[in-house]
Write a structure and sequence with these properties.
Helices cover about 20% and strands about 40% of the residues. The protein is α+β, with helices and mostly antiparallel strands. The protein has a single domain, classed as Immunoglobulin-like. The strands form two sheets. A four-stranded antiparallel β-sheet has the order 2-4-5-7, with no helix packed on it. It has a three-stranded mixed β-sheet with strand order 3-1-6, with no helix packed on it.
């Protein structure tokens, strides 16, 4: 194998391993349900705007987020958000000013729930 071919093979191998590492590096944004109930609806809006996203729990395999389960959130940029959280017993609550960071987990707990109705 010529020196140029060997150099090209090494460069291609390094590029492939770097691309593979970048694909595995970030797990994305994830919601961690620390409430005592199963979440059946989860919508985000830029803080204070009330421009709610679609129900993000629909991306989960069983379409809900159990206690202590994490849900991958897609289509949302890092920033400050309000969340509308829904439960099967028709209760709906709001969580205000959640700071969402890239490739990080944010959590919702019972103490965070505000303005709940039934």
């Amino acid at each position: 194998m010529s020196r140029a071919s060997l150099s090209m093979a090494v460069i291609l191998l390094l590029m492939a391993s770097q691309a593979h590492a970048q694909g595995k590096a970030g797990k994305g944004i994830r919601l961690w349900n620390l409430t005592t109930s199963t979440i059946t609806g989860f919508q985000l809006s830029p803080a204070g705007k009330q421009q709610w996203s679609a129900n993000l729990t629909l991306a989960d395999k069983d379409k809900e987020v159990d206690h202590d389960e994490r849900l991958r959130i897609t289509g949302i940029e890092p920033g400050s958000y309000d969340a509308k959280v829904s439960y099967s017993e028709a209760r709906q609550c709001v969580v205000r000013n959640i700071e969402i960071k890239a490739d990080a987990v944010f959590s919702i707990a019972d103490k965070d729930l505000q303005d709940c109705n039934k």
